[in-house]
Amino acid sequence: MYNNSTKNSNLIKQEALRLGFIDCGISKAEFLENEAPRLEKWLKGNFHGEMKYMENYFDKRLDPTLLVDDAKSVISLSLNYYTDDKQSDPNAPKISKYAFGQDYHAVIKDKLKELLFFIESNIGAVSGRAFVDSAPVLDRAWAKKSGIGWIGKNANLISKTNGSFFFLAELIIDLELDYDSPFQTDHCGTCTRCIDACPTDAILAPQVVDGSKCISYLTIELKNEIPAEFKNKMENWMFGCDICQDVCPWNRFSKAHDEDAFKPENGILDLNEKEITEITDEVFKKVFKGSAVKRTKFAGLKRNIDFLKS
């Protein structure tokens, strides 16, 4: 029977696609029982390195009702950032694709606010919160639970139709909806390309990544000096790393995004090796204005560049 929760779920999914999200799945807001031992083991292995915030709010990471009172549904969304654009100088220190345009946090937060407003305007008053990679929410676990994809050997969420070059975000609301079936099948099979390609051996086992060895962590999250053991292993990445995604066969299905906010700005892709190596604070502020690269601050990016070039 076609009930209100079915109608409301369909309305929400249609609006999510209209806002530019490439996928939307809905799951019941409940304790993530299977994730608790995994998260505990990962933290005990100290695979979070200096990301001490990962130790905080352990219960909240697993239980959405502790984040939103009387939470009933977790709406998981994905937003494509894949692009064929490349840095013009192949020898220039590299930037991860996701940082070519405007900072995704602000872009997605605006879309989530619009979606929440749509729900309130078309369905009724709801209480809820929007999450974009900035709160204790296990994005990939919820995305898998809502049927968007499976967790690959590199611990990224992978979709059969969209690959893995997308951001994940959530709306947790106190509205009961129809729930999608969790993604059950792992389509990585015997492929180990991501494990074999990682230059710092950060992927210890399928779905187990030592974050403290990951180039993205070393160039963004790490605040101290990059350990000498990673000398000549960074593959010229100065902000983030796309290696394990670039080699993934499922990313041959990636299509270029059509999000204006993610298009390269301020000549970010035109900087050559010399200009990056000799970058000044003034140029940093101009080129990376509004970009996720600003997270490293000038001193952090300079540290990364110096480490690559020393």
From TrEMBL:
Which NCBIfam families does the UniProt entry name for this protein? tRNA epoxyqueuosine(34) reductase QueG (TIGR00276)
Might you give the EC number(s) for this enzyme? 1.17.99.6
Protein name, please?
Answer: Epoxyqueuosine reductase
What's one GO BP annotation on this UniProt entry?
tRNA queuosine(34) biosynthetic process
Q: In which pathway does it act?
A: tRNA modification; tRNA-queuosine biosynthesis
- Which cofactors does this protein require? [4Fe-4S] cluster; cob(II)alamin
Q: 4Fe-4S ferredoxin-type domain: which residues?
A: 179-208
Query: What detail does the entry give on cofactor binding?
Result: Binds 2 [4Fe-4S] clusters per monomer.
- What quaternary structure, including any partners, is listed in this protein's UniProt entry? Monomer.
Q: Which gene encodes it?
A: queG
Question: Which amino acid positions bind [4Fe-4S] cluster 1, per UniProt?
Answer: 188, 191, 194, 248
Query: Which family is annotated?
Result: Belongs to the QueG family.
The UniProt annotation places cob(II)alamin binding at 61, 133, 154, 157, 168, 216, 241-242
Pfam families recorded for this chain?
Answer: Fer4_16, QueG_DUF1730
